Amino acid sequence: MTIKETLKPNKAFEIAIVVLMILFAVFFLIPLYLMIVNAFKPLSEIRGGNMLALPIKASFDHWKTAWATAQIGVQATGLRPYFFNSIKMVIPSVLISTVMGSFSGFVLAKWRFKGDELLFGLILFGCFIPFQIVLIPTAKVLGILNLAGSTTGLILVHSVYGLGFTTLFFRNAYKTIPSEMVQAAQIDGSDFMGIFTRIILPLSAPVFVVSIIWQTTNIWNDFLFGASFGDATSQPMTVALNNLVSSSTGVKEYNVHFAGALLAAIPTLTIYFVSGRYFVRGLTSGSVKG
Amino acid sequence: MRVKTKRRLRKDDLVARSVLLPTVLLTMIFVYGFIAFTIYISFTNSKILPTFGWVGLQNYIKLFKLNHWHTALKNMAIFATLYIGISTILGLLLAIMIDLNKFSERVFRPVYLYPMAISFIVTGTAWKWFLDPGIGIEQIMHAWGFASFHFDWIKNSDFAIYTIVIAAVWQVSGYIMVIFLAGLRAIPHETIESAVVDGASVFTLYRKIIIPQLSASFLSVFVILGHMAIKSYDLVVALTSGGPGRATELPSTFMYSYTFTRNQMGVGAASAVFMLIVFGIIIIPYLKHQIKEDIS
């Protein structure tokens, strides 16, 4: 039974709502639409005309420029090397934080010990903090470890600060597995790893998907850590895009900016449209409880 | 046999603790150790690099005398109020509409929510040029025949902060919608039904019966938006870089520039500590409440 079935709204009311929803949909789609159409336009069409109009002379040239030849910082490399920096950074950090999160989530869900609630609270607090509070020591420690400006350093930072979220996801998922199943396995003689691999893991596919999607989206979209701890050899896509768009020298190539922005958005947008259901689950767990 | 099982269970306990240990250690060092380090730095005369010359509260006194910091705080207040207020109302409205239109959920929910999946730098780029009076919305209105239409907020230091609000609300409203939607679906329909039988109109029904039952969702929403407001950084960098002048400077951008470009790390650390305190006031009671509820 839903609110709608109880209310039985009349036709006019329903139509009014659909119209309003369409108007909002337009508002939400405008920035995306704007990026797409203008990424294909020559500069003259953007400057002289209507940004909302479809391109008259569409071309892929600006995409190629954004990808391979645009000036990023001091070098005309395009966004390509930074795209791969992001990939090299995202894959290991997503895997590390997810695997560690599944272990710690399992322990926090199924093992009782003194102070476990407090410990969970402390871990959880860590994933929401404003990261400005850790920037100075992180920079210092990465320097000491000789990881300043390296992809490895960024992997370390993203893995560690992702642990709070992944632990939360796995703990909440494993809480729903009946403790009797774990106890029965213990009585049958399974040890910790046996229970984890034979009982818990087979039930974990959805939460792994949630964790991987959430971490990939978050780490791919990160700017603060990338800007603080990356250098020209390791900066991720978001930092390079910001350099491209906010560089104050020369003619502003809006079409190249939009193509570049879309290149930065395509990986996470694709994940979102393919598996939005899991992204939504991540979001609602992020509010601690849905 | 029993003794053997017991010994094994004790071994399992040990394994469980050691499996949890890396996460605990990393959290203790990288979160709590680092927070302690930044707090310590805020009491030192650190300039370009962290140093350990104790200066007491000097950085905090200096911080609160800086006009620059006052601007950042004032902007934060304006931004947070509007961001939280508008996103809450918009998110609730979207959730109510989606809830009333079962069929359209598959179409509209992804459209309202997709901004959450992309980087603030990307959306900042889109909004930056869309709001730019030289090529964006002003030109579009002129092309449509509204020759006198004028919209230069992003270049105007009195109004630039509102353009940050527009882009930030646009990005987060879908998320708020998802939370309210979950809340709406959890309301027991008996309460609604009896009000319908009593002949309440749709608006009274929402105002008096349904929305008051969403208090848990409202709490989540305020905490989420509150902490996101404090952390807002990328969007400002992409949209205005804190300008024009200092018109869109926030504590987050202030912290970054004092720490890393103006070489006043002590003051930067003090501003970060201030951010953490505001954040803690919002989130600690909430986390406590949630975990308690979760256990019971």
List the defining traits of the structure above:
heterodimer, A: 290 residues, mainly alpha, MetI-like fold, 2 domains, 14 helices, 0% strand, flat, B: 296 residues, 13 helices
CATH architecture of the largest domain in chain B: Orthogonal Bundle
How many distinct helices of chain B? 13
Uncertain regions of chain A: pLDDT < 50 for 5+ in a row?
A: none
Main sheet: strands, sense, barrel of chain B: none
Low-confidence stretches of chain B: none
Report the strand count of chain A.
Answer: 0
How many domains comprise the coordinates of chain A? 2
Instruction: Give the class-level CATH name of the largest domain in chain A.
Output: Mainly Alpha
β-sheet strand percentage of chain B: under 5%
What helical percentage do the residues of chain A reach? Answer: over 70%
Q: How are the elements arranged and paired?
A:
The complex is a heterodimer of chains A (290) and B (296).
Chain A: H1 3-7, H2 11-39, H3 43-48, H4 61-69, H5 80-110, H6 116-128, H7 132-144, H8 151-175, H9 179-187, H10 192-200, H11 205-221, H12 224-229, H13 237-246, H14 254-286
Helix pairs in contact in A: 2-14, 4-14, 5-8, 5-11, 5-13, 6-8, 8-11, 11-14, 13-14
Chain B: H1 2-41, H2 58-65, H3 67-100, H4 105-113, H5 120-130, H6 137-143, H7 160-185, H8 189-197, H9 202-210, H10 215-231, H11 234-239, H12 251-261, H13 265-295
